Amino acid sequence: MKKRQFSWSLVALLALAGPAKAAGGAASDAAGPASQFQMAMTIYAGGITLGKMDIDATVRGNDYHAVSNLQTSGVVNAFWQAEIQATSSGKVGAQTLTPVLYDSFDINRTGKKQEVSLTYDSANPPRLYADPPYSTTGYEVKPEDQKATLDPLSAVMFIVSGAGTAGTPCTVTAPVFDGRRRYNIEMTKVKDVDIKLDNGLYAGKASLCQIKYHQLSGFKPRVIKANETFPTINAWVVPYHSATRNSDYMVPLRVWADTPYGLVAVVANSLKIDGQAPKAN
Questions:
Q1: Among residues 255, 234, 263, which one has the least CA distance to residue 48?
Q2: Which phi and psi (to 5°) does residue 236 adopt?
Q3: Integer Cα distance of 105 and 40 in angstroms
Q4: For 225-254, what is each residue's pLDDT tens digit?
Q5: Angstrom distance (rounded) from CA 245 to CA 222
């Protein structure tokens, strides 16, 4: 029981800091200067390193293209090993984000490979491709519930780009469909805080945010039982300005949750915006 709760707590946590499952995708060819967001993070549990992840996103005009990688390591590989690559591309506006293509590729601890792709248009549910195909019989997400949703990596871009927050950290709900499951990532601001990362990356003002991972459909009871809930998830979010975009990125420098196996945290260890290590606003 504890291992299952821990692994799903970790999955929920990573869904807020990076993609849950996802490779491929087309780069933007729009004209104009490009803004680039690059961040690398380390995953910890009880002070032990469990893995690493990174995200590299480019915004050029109204086009975005994001790539993310996640690889677990250490003791967590005994029951939840993953090597995941993800890409997503689409359109981003001042307060909107619309995915066009999401590709995913992951390898689990048994060596099994899974590729998932979602292709979007404005009028219909996203078109799903899965190799190998998988069954959702009995746990379907209704077509109408798939409309107007984001893939996991686009949900991260929705939050980080500021499109979902209208310039206010932590005030956002991201509706996510990942090809199997439909859930919301709901963020609210708790208070302003002064923080200092142990790795020296940042010290100063931040927003303490509370995050809920709200399951809606597509979750098998044998994986997540009705009486099981995800832990409270917190994040330190700091705005960083991009002169190229003339707007702010909302950066989660630390995301953490208490689990049956202790504190699990995803912590930024490097950050570049438009090629430079930035200073917070």
A1: 263
A2: -95, 120
A3: 19
A4: 544 566 788 999 999 999 999 999 999 999
A5: 45
Which residue type, as a one-letter code, is found at position 36?
A: Q
Among left, alpha and beta (phi > 0; psi -120 to 50; other), residue 160 is alpha
First to last CA, the chain: 44
Q: Say how far apart CA 103 and CA 5 lie, in whole Å.
A: 27
Q: How far apart are CA 106 and CA 23, in angstroms?
A: 8
182-200 b/e (C-beta count within 10 Å ≥ 16 → b): bbebebebeeeeeeeeeee
Return the bridge partners of 210, or none.
188, 234
Distances from the Cα of 105 to the Cα of 46, 68, 114, 132, 189, angstroms? 29, 11, 6, 11, 33
Closest CA to 146 of 164, 172, 120: 120
Q: In the structure encoding, which two tokens stand for residue 185, read together?
A: 């990532």
Residue 37 contacts residue 160 (beta carbons within 8 Å): yes
Conformational region of residue 29, where left means phi above 0, alpha means psi within -120 to 50, and beta covers everything else: alpha
**Domain ranges (residues) in the chain:** 2-273
For 31-85, write each residue's pLDDT tens digit: 578 999 999 999 887 778 888 999 999 999 999 999 999 887 754 544 455 688 9
